[in-house]
């Protein structure tokens, strides 16, 4: 893939940008999720709901939107689905929201049922980028527009639009955080680095990985960063289905094989919070050196608690309320025959051509700014992070 390296500004300006909204979209405060969520292994709390009673949903205008989410096993997908459903209903649409239990064929069947039941537009967060061919062919034959949500649907010309956070920039935020925290431009080093990337079946995972590695590779090449395990290729460091247990098992092996003598791991690059949890468990089990920098993504509740406790350094914050608001806006523009808001027409080629995309900007949360980003914005309550 090719993408011009973006300058990542890890400063309070990024916080201000988040509070303004998503990219070029209107600066409205999206409603917080109210549906109960469940992360990797146990039920998790949702971002805080508004305390006042919600306004009644708008009366349905007879237009149906099918929303296909991959799983309830990760907190963020519960949040995405609940936020999207609430905003679509408030806009007057009937909503068919389905979760596919991380089973691609289940997702195919659910989408086909949405089409058969009269969906006018589909919003799909795929389990696997190229697994929905049959369902997408059916949507195309029925002239139903498809919005790929957060994960680009690959190898299908049925995809009309793509809405996501800037996935390459997510990785850049992580990489720049490491550069700044270790002061790699001035420090002598060497520093030991290990890498845990995401699901090879998720089209976003290589973008996260490349965004970080494009910044870190020069320091690896000059020997300032050293990967003692030797595992740097995406194929070596990927984590199928973003599984916490898989990330932990691999981290256990790396620690026992290369760091059992107490050698320090200075930084562990983790692409998201579920993989970071696995690494953090492995570190707690058998690591005896100084605690490393650990990156993450999504600001899940358990990971935010770990940030506060000093067990995770940062997590990229992608406010799914903001993304849901943008997608609802795009759905309305599609159904009304209006020009659809996009801000990228060059980057995301799904194998049949570049898909017009709307990219939201990510920022990072850490122990210094999580209150402003996560609590003051209403994403979580203080009680949820106790």
Summarize this entry quickly.
With 386 residues, this protein is of the alpha/beta class. It has twelve helices and twelve strands.
The overall average pLDDT, rounded, is 87
Main sheet: strand order: 2-1-3-4-5-11
Summed up, the helix count is 12
Report how far the terminal alpha carbons are from each other.
42 Å
Strand proportion, as a percent range, falls in 5-15%
Number of strands: 12
> Topology as H/E string?
HEHEHEHEEHEHEHHEHEHEHEEH
Top CATH class of the largest domain: Alpha Beta
Remind me, CATH topology of the largest domain?
Answer: Rossmann fold
Structural class: alpha/beta
Tertiary shape: elongated
Gyration radius over CA: 21 Å
Low-confidence stretches: 1-21, 23-44, 49-57
Q: CATH H level of the largest domain: which superfamily?
A: Response regulator
Tell me about the biggest sheet? 6 strands, parallel
Number of domains: 2
The helix content is 25-40%
CATH hierarchy: architecture of the largest domain: 3-Layer(aba) Sandwich
Can you walk me through this structure?
This protein is of the alpha/beta class and 386 residues long. The protein folds into 2 domains: 24-166 and 319-361, Response regulator (Rossmann fold, 3-Layer(aba) Sandwich), CATH 3.40.50; 168-317, 3-Layer(aba) Sandwich (Rossmann fold). Helices cover 38% and strands 13% of the residues. Strands 2-1-3-4-5-11 form a 6-stranded parallel sheet, sandwiched between helices. It has a 4-stranded parallel sheet with strand order 7-6-8-9, sandwiched between helices. The chain has a two-stranded antiparallel ribbon with strand order 10-12. Strand 8, helix 9 and strand 9 (293-294) form a beta-alpha-beta unit. The N and C termini lie far apart (42 Å). Mean pLDDT is 87; it is low at 1-21, 23-44 and 49-57.
């Amino acid at each position: 893939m090719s993408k011009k390296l973006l300058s990542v500004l890890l400063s309070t300006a990024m916080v201000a940008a988040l509070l303004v909204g998503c990219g070029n979209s209107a600066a409205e405060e999206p409603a917080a999720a109210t549906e109960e969520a469940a992360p990797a292994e146990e039920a998790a709390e949702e971002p805080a709901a508004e305390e006042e009673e919600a306004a009644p949903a708008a009366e349905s205008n007879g237009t149906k939107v099918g929303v296909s989410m991959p799983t309830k096993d990760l907190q963020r997908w519960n949040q995405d689905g609940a936020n999207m459903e609430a905003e679509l209903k408030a806009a007057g649409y009937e909503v068919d929201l389905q979760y596919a239990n991380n089973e691609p064929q289940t997702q195919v069947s659910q989408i086909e049922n949405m089409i058969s039941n009269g969906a006018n537009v589909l919003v799909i967060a795929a389990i696997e980028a190229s697994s929905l061919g049959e369902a997408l062919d059916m949507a195309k034959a029925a002239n139903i527009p498809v919005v790929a949500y957060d994960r680009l649907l690959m190898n299908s010309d049925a995809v009309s639009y793509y809405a996501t956070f800037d996935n390459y920039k997510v990785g850049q935020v992580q990489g720049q955080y490491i550069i700044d925290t270790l002061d790699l431009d001035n420090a002598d080093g060497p520093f030991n680095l290990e890498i845990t990337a995401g699901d090879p079946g998720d089209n976003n995972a290589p973008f996260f990985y490349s965004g970080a590695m494009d910044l870190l590779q020069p320091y690896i090449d000059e020997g300032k960063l050293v990967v003692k395990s030797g595992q740097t290729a995406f194929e070596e460091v990927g984590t199928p289905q973003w599984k916490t247990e898989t990330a932990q098992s691999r981290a256990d092996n790396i620690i026992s094989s290369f760091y059992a003598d107490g050698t320090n791991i200075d930084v562990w690059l983790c692409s998201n919070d579920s993989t970071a949890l696995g690494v953090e468990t492995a570190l707690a089990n058998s690591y005896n050196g100084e605690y490393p920098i650990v990156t993450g993504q999504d600001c899940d509740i358990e990971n935010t608690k770990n940030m506060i406790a000093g067990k995770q350094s940062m997590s990229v914050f992608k406010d799914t309320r903001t993304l849901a608001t943008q997608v609802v806006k795009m759905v309305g523009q599609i159904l009304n025959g209006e020009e659809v808001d996009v801000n990228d027409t060059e980057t995301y080629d799904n194998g049949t051509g570049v898909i017009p995309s709307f990219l939201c900007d990510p920022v990072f949360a850490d122990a210094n700014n999580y209150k402003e980003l996560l609590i003051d914005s209403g994403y979580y309550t203080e009680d949820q992070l106790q």
